[in-house]
Amino acid sequence: MQHFTISSIAILLLVQLIPETLAQLADAPAPPGPPNITAILEKAGQFGTFIRLLKSTHVGDQINNQLNSSLNGITVFAPSDNAFSSLPPGTINSLTDQQQVALIQFHELPYLVPLAQFQTISNPVRTQAGDVNNGRYPLNVTTMGKQVNITTGIINTTISDTVHSDYQLAIYEVDKVLLPIEIFGPPAPAAAPAPVKSKQKGTSIAESPSSVADASAAVKLIWSTTGGILFAAAAISLWLSN
Ligand SMILES: *[C@@H]1O[C@H](CO)[C@@H](O)[C@H](O)[C@H]1NC(C)=O
Ligand SMILES: *[C@@H]1O[C@H](CO)[C@@H](O)[C@H](O)[C@H]1NC(C)=O
Ligand SMILES: *[C@@H]1O[C@H](CO)[C@@H](O)[C@H](O)[C@H]1NC(C)=O
Ligand SMILES: *[C@@H]1O[C@H](CO)[C@@H](O)[C@H](O)[C@H]1NC(C)=O
Ligand SMILES: *[C@@H]1O[C@H](CO)[C@@H](O)[C@H](O)[C@H]1NC(C)=O
């Protein structure tokens, strides 16, 4: 009887608590939703150019979609307006659309890195621009205490502020635009990425130099042999041209 009473009370409590908990669970994520990177940066101020580029390249939409659909989170290095204005005039506008997308994706890590975790991250850090293995988008981090230095091989900078940090999005202010080697460095050495492209496209082009070489070898052979063969070769080529 006592058992019955206790379990009845327990069930009564559960019945009352469950809907409340469910209601809280349902309520909790809905109003905040996934964080909106442009809204956060607008509120922070000082990021007008970066916001404009997030919009024009649609990387901002990609980030918002990733935040809504992936559990990995996102880390963003946001260059301040001062960072952009200290670039030589026209630097950004002279880039192709594709390069602008890559540049902005270079400022995004497709996973969350809380500030303290930079101490143990391995270099080169993988960015949304990808291509770590070919070494054309290296982003290296070194830390000392709370100081986090970033180098791209073109620029060195330091995280100067944490703009935003939650369980899925971290935004760090940087005082320089992170310029990747792929876009701002010396041209890639012909050895690395070039053969992949030229193998397919260049087949017919590659054949002509070698047939030229064959022809000149044949001419040399002809000149080094007797006039009889030379005459024969001339006759054959006359016959071929008819
Ligand atoms: C994010 O915020 C910006 C600016 O506040 C707004 O224009 C945009 O519609 C928002 N995007 C989403 C997905 O809510
Ligand atoms: C997030 O994704 C869900 C579906 O997975 C969609 O219904 C919702 O509108 C999305 N929210 C935003 C802010 O994009
Ligand atoms: C970070 O950079 C500053 C100067 O830019 C330098 O003094 C400092 O030693 C660097 N720290 C690390 C950990 O690389
Ligand atoms: C980044 O770090 C990797 C691994 O330590 C190193 O091989 C590479 O040269 C570094 N690149 C730059 C630009 O510092
Ligand atoms: C960046 O820092 C490294 C040493 O940490 C230095 O060798 C290099 O010259 C610096 N590059 C620029 C562009 O300041």
From TrEMBL:
Q: What is its main location?
A: membrane
Keywords of the record: Cell membrane, Glycoprotein, GPI-anchor, Lipoprotein, Membrane, Proteoglycan, Signal
> Any one Gene Ontology biological process term?
plant-type secondary cell wall biogenesis
Top-rank taxon of the source lineage equals Eukaryota
A Pfam match is Fasciclin
What is the annotated localization of this protein? Cell membrane
How does the record say this protein sits in the membrane? Lipid-anchor; GPI-anchor
GO CC terms of this entry: plasma membrane; side of membrane
Q: What does this protein do?
A: May be a cell surface adhesion protein.
Q: Which family does it belong to?
A: Belongs to the fasciclin-like AGP family.
Q: What is this protein called?
A: FAS1 domain-containing protein
Q: Which organism is it from?
A: Canna indica
